[in-house]
Amino acid sequence: MRTMTRQKYSGHFTKIVMGGVDTIRTLKLLGKWSANRAVGRRRPLIAVFSMTHYCNFYCPMCPFGDADKEGQMALARRKDLTTEQWKAVFDKVSKYCVWAIVEGGEPTSRPDFMELVKYLHGLKMPVTLISNCSLLHTIDLDELRKHIQFVTCSIDSTYEESYCKVRGVNPHMYRRVMDNLHLLTEHKVSHYFNSVITKYNTQEFIDQTYFDRARELGASAVSFTFVEDRSDVDYSLLPDRQTMNKVCESILDYMGKQKEKGGGPQVMIPPEYFRQILEHGRGIFDECGVWKSIFVNGDGTVMVPCWKFNGPENTYSLLEHSVDEIWSAPQWDIARTCHDCEVLGCIWYSSQPVSTFARNYMRGLGKIISQERPELAEAV
């Protein structure tokens, strides 16, 4: 729902805040981004801050799922940016990006998590928090609600057995997360689910029970991606092609019924993603759009063009370089022809027109773009 309020800004003029988003700031940055595009200059539009190297979960599809948690904590203590260093990074990035996505590792494991979120809010950057939700009971949720737009809950399964298998945790942790989801509802913190579909959790999507259970847990919307297998391991978590097709067909069926009758969580990823996988076995895009977002690692580095090219020659520190310097690096040319990510939803999204890109983690931003800057709606 679109909500609009008016308030004084610097005592001189009025700004419009749409759904908690500073529309004037957003439109100025979109205009700057558009001007750069007009002269062939690429710059990031969305900021993703990986706040820490530590995560308390053991997800096998994620590099933060390392079983050696003591070693991971030692790494985080050694390499994670300090509070003040993160603030310096936020200052740099906020001059370009219209939205901030805070993730990890598990971002809520940082003692200064709330301080950093408040700082981003003070920079007028709308914030999406991506969390496994296991530590939310340790946070003042009423205070959190004031400083973020919503929480993206990483819930790969709504069933205990498959959840524990995908996440590598015990039943006690599953129940803790479910309790914390109810806390989000009780404290009126807007939240939705993001789920990675692996060979362990396909059935609830095929029989569509996932959607009813997500609604019962307070999620008004859901988003999905099939797992993109890691290149540094010798196992695959991707379902077989026949099962993937069943999942896609069922989700498309649900989306059709939801559009016609309503009543269930909205699916945030467009149907084209599932149709393309049905037809081609993968997502289709002309050129990888990874450059549209700046992904900042826990140590303040940016890998150009992405994590798949993790080498010292492709790694730039935001503590030492400006955003302009990093986005002028020659390694960005790699992304023009790279199509390695076959089913990873976030890469598929970023490679679509910017209005489509804005719909997933930034609900409402797509509407602002379409209404206020329609010439950007199909920009790539």
Largest sheet: 8 strands, parallel
The total tally of domains equals: 1
Stretches with pLDDT under 50, minimum 5 residues: 1-18
Tell me what portion of residues adopts beta-strand conformation: 15-25%
Strand order in the sheet with the most strands: 10-9-8-7-6-5-4-11
Q: Which shape, going by the Cα principal axes?
A: globular
Order of helices and strands: EEEHEHHEHEHEHHEHHEHEHEEEHHHH
The number of helical runs is 15
CATH C-level category: Alpha Beta
The CATH architecture would be: Alpha-Beta Barrel
Residues in helices, as a percent range: 25-40%
Rounded mean pLDDT score: 88
CATH superfamily: Aldolase class I
CATH topology: TIM Barrel
Distance between the termini: 26 Å
What structural category do the secondary elements indicate? alpha/beta
Rg on CA atoms, Å: 20 Å
- Number of E strands: 13
Give the structure's gist in a few sentences.
It contains 15 helices and 13 strands. With 380 residues, it is α/β, with parallel strands linked by helices.
Describe this structure in words.
The chain has 15 helices and 13 strands. It has a single domain, classed as TIM Barrel, CATH 3.20.20.70. Residues 1-18 have low confidence and may be disordered. By secondary structure, the chain is an alpha/beta fold. Helix 3 runs parallel beside helix 4, helix 6 (160-167) crosses helix 7 and helix 10 packs antiparallel against helix 11. The strands form three sheets. The protein has an eight-stranded parallel beta sheet. A three-stranded antiparallel beta sheet has the order 1-2-3. It has a two-stranded antiparallel ribbon with strand order 12-13. The two termini are 26 Å apart. It has helices at residues 23-38, 69-79, 83-93, 113-122, 141-147, 160-167, 171-186, 203-206, 209-216, 241-261, 271-280, 323-327, 345-350, 354-357, 365-372; strands at residues 4-9, 13-18, 21-22, 46-50, 99-103, 127-131, 150-154, 191-197, 221-226, 266-267, 293-296, 301-303, 315-317.
